[in-house]
Amino acid sequence: MLCTCFSIGVSASSDSRTGLKVALGVTSTVSLLLCIAVVALLRALRRKHLALQEIQLESEAGGKLMDEEFEKGSGPKRFEYGQLAVATRGFSEEEKLGEGGFGAVYRGFLKELDLHVAIKRVSRGSEQGRKEYTSEVKIISRLRHRNLVQLIGWCHEGRELLLVYELMPNGSLNTHLYNPTILLTWPVRYKIVLGLGSALLYLHQEWEQCVVHRDVKPSNIMLDASFGAKLGDFGLARLVDHGHGSHTTNLAGTMGYMDAECLVTGRAGPESDVYSFGVVLLEIACGRPPVVPDQEDQQRVRLVEWVWDLYGRRAIIEAADERMGSDFDRGEMERVLVIGLACAHPDCNLRPSIRQAMSMLQCEVTLPALPVKMPTPKYS
């Protein structure tokens, strides 16, 4: 009897272990299948998300319309990613021209067009970069002016967002203004001033809508083979109907070139670009950045305040870039400095329009009489 009972106990224990193994095996298999299903679902959702992004970008940028325009010879072209990878030798470091907050720019050569280009590759996963890409394609692709950087084409495949521009042989104004081995002559500087003003006049008053650039600065002013100025980087640009003035927007731009009122109130309009234009004019004439440290009292000196102080002391010509010595036209230098101050006036209502500023630069009207002391800004 005892043997029988013992035998039965062993058999039950063995069946229990076998059942446990089976249960664990089934559970593991089910878990594995669930994991595979979840991964497959996530991949499918990701593909769908990328496809939707592709469709959204296509819609936002008006891709089909621009393809039709290009075929007619009037618009930029949509490129395949592979074409641009070949053009830049796989986006090699040797072809990299520079890098910014939302992507890098590469030199490339498009054999099919026999054209040297600059290709901006937006950083993957950059939401702001994606927004700027869409804004750039929507706006600059519709603009045609000799003083604007030409958009040759664009590409969006999956997570890759790329913009193709004409290549500017002399790079940006910024690299020339502060390169100790390069000295821009005064005639070249004055030519750049007029070119930039012409670009803004087109954007503000001569196109079908008013384009507010919102980031006018030397690093966005490109120079062609003959040092003609071309304004680029429309990632922050906004369209405004003519006559509607400034509008509230997200804070955007570069410190030193931004209107203080825009910083305080969040409003941006053509007058904001005029302010930036004024700062750039002073920078070109003086060879100094918008804000410089004072070595004596370790404070920061704003370029506009420094030039205005010289204007009040009837010594504005002393603001001229000392590297030029006296090798400049005094009348043109004074004109650029005074117009720069007028455009950077703290009160946006007292600034000239870009058309008025251009008329003054071209000696069609007299220079404004500015206050001896720089006014204190007032915001409504």
UniProtKB/TrEMBL annotation:
It is a single-pass type I membrane protein. It is found in: Cell membrane. It comes from the Eukaryota. Keywords: ATP-binding, Cell membrane, Glycoprotein, Kinase, Membrane, Nucleotide-binding, Receptor, Serine/threonine-protein kinase, Signal, Transferase, Transmembrane, Transmembrane helix. One of its GO terms (molecular function) is ATP binding. InterPro entries: Kinase-like_dom_sf (IPR011009), L-type_Lectin-RKs (IPR050528), Prot_kinase_dom (IPR000719), Protein_kinase_ATP_BS (IPR017441), Ser/Thr_kinase_AS (IPR008271). GO terms for biological process: defense response to oomycetes. Pfam families: Pkinase (PF00069). The chain crosses the membrane at residues 24-45. GO terms for cellular component: plasma membrane. Gene3D superfamilies: Phosphorylase Kinase, domain 1, Transferase(Phosphotransferase) domain 1. Residues 91-370 form the Protein kinase domain. ATP binds at residue 120. Signal peptide: none annotated. PROSITE patterns: PROTEIN_KINASE_ATP (PS00107), PROTEIN_KINASE_DOM (PS50011), PROTEIN_KINASE_ST (PS00108). In the C-terminal section; belongs to the protein kinase superfamily. Ser/Thr protein kinase family. Belongs to the protein kinase superfamily. This is Protein kinase domain-containing protein. It comes from Urochloa decumbens.
